[in-house]
């Protein structure tokens, strides 16, 4: 005599036994995986130029430019090149001795210099170099967060910087986030099931009083004043978060937005996930407070207009202003990959090669060429001064 | 990626690829879908290999289960109206009763929502505890228990009256 559970167990094993034989799974996964990496890389660092007509100029994949000499350059895949669409004003050279100001009273707050070399066709990564704005000293300092100090995980490349540039959060090991000061001292160790290994990175609140940490089961909020970590459960966040799963704080510092993938759209590894909305959560209660329909991911904390009226989102072709309540587009498509609202309501788009000043409706006002010292693979962070 | 990590990825796939395909086939019931599911999960793992290699299998399994659940949600409407085509026992009289029962359960299993099926695969193929199943699916243990209970109840509804004995079902 058999019971249902016994029969079920046999049936499940029968199904598993009928699985096809693995054939070159590694090779196929590699090809697909490299595509994913290129896409993430491009989204994070490439600078898509959008002409006033709305036509997208092809963008370049970032090339590896090593901090140390390339031993043997590997052939790179053919890639289109960035074309400056119109005459761009050259910005002055960067110096670590003074804050580097950008048009619209913005300032470069952080420069990340990767050291990736290609040896025999394989990428080899070394520790990043971080230059952070020291507002007190009115210059830049090199952060002592290399792997030799074991402050960061050997596999970590995530470093969240507080708005005042005095606190940093990094993944020290799996399920452990460390809070550091600029001298590399640990201020706190947070044992939390962080989600960063699959996409979401920690992000500081606009006033630097809180650190938001996406987790496997939802999110956690660390309060600097009390050094308490509160964890909130919402297992629905992770499966619906997109490839470009980045959380951003709203200007009020009490709520944050999480992108939600459109489940009705076809999905493929060679195309970006489509976004249907962002969910807004309360960092005070952990509750989801509203959903805003929009077709892109907010491009960071400073993507939100301080009065909360509109937000800059990254769409497939560039960055667009949308109404922060209804999600309705309010302006033209702009270049990326990053953008912030300036204090006067204009918008600054920027990457490591170009910066562009836009009116509030996305009309291009002026274009600038970043200093040649900012090589294309560097990551530049900018904030309102 | 460092050559040593490349080699590690290759070795991982060689060692665990077939086991992952077994899980994927139990989830999908379809060879092509199973291959796509595993390949997609391995691709994501490769893209982040330097960061996840120390816990690669858990990472890949989690993606497999979550991607399957996502795929199901996208076609939820279709799946919701799908009714298992349970084999007519009268037509299977020449088979051993156990085989008939297993076929009936297998077909019924494939008609369950992906989340419920995932719970059953984790519990009955991988012999995972409720807590482990919850961790793999990113939900609470209570959710696993309720999903398992609902899934078994559905199976019982679909095939119970066709089986010679369901007395032990629980």
Automatic annotation (TrEMBL), chain A:
Domain of life assignment: Bacteria
Alphabetically ordered keywords of this record: Membrane, Transmembrane, Transmembrane helix
Protein name: WD40-like Beta Propeller Repeat
Species of origin: Actinoplanes philippinensis
Gene3D superfamilies recorded: TolB, C-terminal domain (2.120.10.30)
Presence of the UniProt keyword Transmembrane in the record: yes
Transmembrane segments: 42-62
From TrEMBL, chain B:
RNA polymerase sigma-70 region domain: residues covered: 15-77
Record GO terms (molecular function): DNA binding; sigma factor activity
One Pfam family of this chain: Sigma70_r2
Highest taxon listed in the record's lineage: Bacteria
Keyword Cell inner membrane: no
Keywords of this entry: DNA-binding, Sigma factor, Transcription, Transcription regulation
Segments forming domain RNA polymerase sigma factor 70 region 4 type: 103-155
Family: Belongs to the sigma-70 factor family. ECF subfamily.
Name this polypeptide is given: RNA polymerase sigma-70 factor, sigma-E family
